[in-house]
Specification:
The complex is a heterodimer of chains A (about 475) and B (about 240).
Chain A: H1 10-20, H2 22-44, H3 49-65, H4 67-80, E1 84-88, H5 91-105, E2 109-112, H6 116-120, H7 123-129, E3 133-136, H8 139-146, H9 163-177, H10 189-206, E4 209-212, E5 216-218, E6 223-228, H11 232-238, E7 242-248, E8 252-253, H12 259-270, E9 278-283, E10 293-299, H13 303-307, H14 323-327, H15 329-334, H16 345-356, H17 361-365, H18 375-379, H19 386-400, H20 406-419, H21 422-434, H22 447-450, H23 463-470
Parallel strand pairs in A: 1-10, 2-3, 2-4, 4-7, 5-8, 7-10
Antiparallel strand pairs in A: 5-6, 6-9
Chain B: E1 2-5, H1 9-14, H2 16-28, E2 32-34, H3 44-48, H4 52-65, E3 72-74, H5 77-86, H6 94-98, E4 99-101, H7 102-109, E5 122-125, H8 129-134, H9 140-146, E6 152-154, H10 169-172, H11 174-190, E7 195-198, H12 201-214, E8 219-222, H13 223-227, H14 237-240
Parallel strand pairs in B: 1-2, 1-3, 3-4, 5-6, 5-7, 7-8
Helix pairs in contact in B: 11-12
Classes of the chains: A alpha/beta (about 475), B alpha/beta (about 240).
Bound molecules: iron/sulfur cluster.
Iron/sulfur cluster binds near residues 318, 323, 347, 379 and 384 of chain A.
Chain lengths: ~475, ~240
């Protein structure tokens, strides 16, 4: 199999590096298996899980079908309750809007609630270029930021780190960002959390501007919802004077009532909790209580292109619970960084190539980064048929393929032709079996297979020939 | 009852013993087996690799080959899943309704769980993903194995995790594929069973290749070969060694 085979380059190479990192593999295996077991238990408690899953799927599909209507309704409701809505067509647009809003406050620091959308658009880097420092306040995001690292999981961005590594990062890096880690810091979870708490408390009390994303936006009321575990979100959403929320357009739901479904499924699927510790909801601004200035930046950044694809659009149903990452055998071995995007794992493999296109090596390789085992589809709370979208995107990559991929196309066409002509197939099989003593042990074309495995031995006779001899 | 055997291209070329065992088993249970010689491949490798048009040609070809049969039985969970789940999306709606994976046919159509087999070995069963999740075979294969005289079934830890084969995934992402397979083999070896059984030879090609490379004391074996063995005609390792 030559290197021109589709999907060969980027993901496989990044994954190989990760596979050789034994600490990373152990960290990931431990973490994903623990979450996996807990999630299964939390879901098993629900007698109406299948109905909730179906309701989640239908609510999202309905909303996406009428997205234009619900976004306008949302804009109206937010505006009426004292907020300002901005429309951002892409990452640059969104980053510029946010930077301008922060600059208008005269501040040069912001605190951040964990948000995938702002990761996606590279907001922290864009703000830094404008002289504005963004402080991540989610514990795992803090670990990533202090470690000058990249997130490797949607929900647990530092899942690739163990306690000893976190202790080392805190000890060496915290001082440069604010309050230093306490002397004699141990790697006990309690100690590490306390160090983060002390470090972050300063930031919460000082910050005048906060930036968040949102898990849901309710069109009928203009309410935004952030679901979290640590309470850092609640601090950011209530203490600062100005709040800027950057949210993907697909996060809207029509009614308050629709939250009933997702607030049951999201915590169980993500952190395996019956209910998450903090659910913050806000509607515009209220005099003398909470942020007095609220801006909602509605982000497209490729989402309407995804919406135009009849098969691929189901990826927009995603509520970012990360259950698909936690059950994915490929993610478990390759780690999140191999996916080359803030969206790793199965959902990343179908979302990234749709948002960014399939022209770069990494993006074209993502649809192939799956054994199509279906574990992701089975757990997904909004029933995204990830294997179906993967295959669909493989077709897109094959169809766009240039000269580099011609070898595979020609081979595929030849094999398919032979398979439509059973007599040709029988002859080929006979030729292969009669010459089997002559076959080299490692024909160069199957290097990828034989690097870790033996080839199957060819039998003396095909089934077809056995049948002819014995059954006619 | 008359059925058509859809042996699948992998079994035809690489694992004829599985096809022979399927015929032996079905005939022992009073079923008349035909082998429509026009059959080749279900088109799954093409479809899953993104070659939809090539797959569509094979879908039409396969549908024609089995047009005359009310029951089409195949000893492969993943080919059965391809026909059942993907054929309707590729324009073929009749064959999916008539296609049965072997263990499904035995349990649901023939209503048999004790096929009268004899296999005096310890066995652990790997439920391949497409059988498990797409077809929903559930405990059918394990019920069949459980009823086999002399057979001791050992539970496979992490049974529902993918073995890492995944068709072209096995070569396009060979490193991850091998890592997944090694974990599966490790867990099978931990059961100390003699045999690693599955209802899909594609998984067993991959796992068998790892077992032989690592020289593990474990024999990969398709479920049809276990179910076809009897006290009169026991399974003879020497005869079918691969
Ligand atoms: S694709 Fe489904 S399982 Fe994966 S993160 Fe999104 S909602 Fe969760």
């Amino acid at each position: 199999m030559s290197d021109t085979f589709l999907g060969m380059p980027a993901f496989p190479q990044a994954a190989r590096v990760a596979l050789h990192n034994t600490t990373l593999r152990a960290n990931l295996r431990h973490a994903t298996h623990t979450i996996r077991a807990k999630r299964a238990q939390a879901v098993a408690e629900l007698s109406d899980w299948e109905q909730l899953r179906d309701a989640g799927r239908q609510i999202k599909d309905h909303t996406l079908r009428h997205l234009d209507r619900y976004l306008i309704q949302l804009e109206q409701a937010v505006t009426e309750s004292g907020g300002t809505v901005h429309w951002a067509v892409d990452a640059d647009d969104a980053n510029r809007i946010v930077a301008d809003l922060v600059k208008a406050t005269g501040e040069s620091e912001v605190v951040k609630v964990k948000s995938m959308a702002t990761q996606e658009i590279g907001l922290n880097e864009a703000l830094a270029a404008e002289g504005i420092t963004a402080y991540e306040t989610d514990l795992a995001e803090l670990i990533v930021q202090l470690g000058d690292d990249r997130p490797s999981h949607i929900l647990v961005p530092a899942i690739h780190r163990n306690r000893a590594e976190i202790r080392a990062i805190f000890t060496s890096e915290m001082a440069a960002w604010g309050r230093a880690a306490p002397d004699g810091l141990t790697d006990s979870p309690g100690d590490l959390a306390e160090a983060a708490r002390l470090h972050l408390r300063e930031k919460f009390l000082r910050a005048r501007v906060a930036i968040s994303g949102a898990n849901f936006m309710v069109a009928e009321t203009g309410t935004l919802v952030v679901v979290e575990s640590e309470g850092n979100g609640r601090m950011c959403l209530t203490l600062p004077r100005t709040l800027i929320s950057v949210v993907g357009v697909e996060k809207v739901v029509p009614t308050w009532r629709d939250l009933e479904v997702f607030l049951q499924t999201l915590p169980r699927l993500s952190t395996a909790e019956r209910m998450n510790p903090y659910t913050s909801m806000w509607t515009g601004t209220v005099d003398g209580d909470g942020p007095q200035d609220f801006h909602l930046v509605l982000l497209d950044n490729g989402r309407t292109d995804v919406l135009a694809d009849a098969v691929g659009r189901q990826a927009l149903r995603c509520i970012r619970c990360s259950a698909c990452l936690n059950v994915c055998p490929v993610y478990e071995r390759a780690g999140g960084h191999a996916y080359g995007s803030v969206y790793p794992g199965p959902i990343g493999a179908i979302l990234t190539p749709q948002l960014r296109g399939t022209t770069s090596a990494i993006d074209a390789s993502l649809p192939f980064a799956s054994s199509l085992c279906g574990a992701c589809y089975e757990v997904c709370p909004v029933a995204i048929d990830i294997p179906e979208v993967l295959v669909h995107l493989r077709e897109r990559v094959v169809d766009q393929s240039g000269a580099g991929h011609r070898t595979e196309s020609i081979a595929m066409a030849a094999v398919s032709w032979a398979l439509r002509h059973p007599s040709v197939l029988a002859t080929a099989e006979r030729l292969a079996t009669t010459t089997r003593a002559l076959h080299p042990r490692r024909p160069p074309g199957v290097r990828a297979w034989t690097a870790g495995r033996e080839l199957p031995e060819l039998p003396a006779q095909s089934f077809r020939d056995w049948w002819k001899e014995n059954h006619r | 009852m008359r059925v058509a055997l859809f042996v699948t291209c992998v079994n035809d070329a690489l694992f004829p013993a599985t096809g022979i065992a399927t015929v032996t088993l079905l005939e022992r249970l009073g079923v008349t087996v035909d082998f429509p010689a026009a059959q080749t491949c279900c088109g799954q490798p093409q479809f899953n690799s993104g070659y939809r048009r090539a797959a569509e040609g094979l879908v039409r070809h396969t549908a024609r080959a089995f047009a005359a049969y009310e029951y089409v039985v195949t000893p492969s969970g993943s080919c059965a899943a391809m026909v059942r789940e993907q054929y309707p999306r590729l324009g073929e709606t009749s064959l999916p309704k008539r296609t049965y994976e072997l263990t499904e046919f035995l349990v649901d159509v023939l209503h048999i769980t004790d096929v009268g087999a004899y296999f005096p070995h310890t066995v652990t069963y790997h439920p391949s993903c497409h059988g498990l999740r797409t077809l929903g075979l559930g405990d059918r294969p394990r019920r069949l194995l459980h009823a086999v005289k002399g057979l001791e079934l050992r539970e496979l830890p992490g049974a529902d995790e993918c073995c890492g084969f995944g068709g072209t995934f096995a070569v396009k992402n060979a490193d991850v594929s091998v890592a997944m397979g090694q974990d599966k083999v490790r867990s099978a070896v931990s059961t100390r069973a003699d045999v690693l059984c599955a209802a899909d030879n594609s998984c067993l090609t991959h796992l068998g290749g790892l077992i032989r490379r690592q020289q593990e004391p474990l024999r990969p074996l398709h479920i049809a070969e276990i179910l076809s063995a009897t006290e009169q005609h026991p399974y003879l390792p020497a005869e079918l060694t691969r």
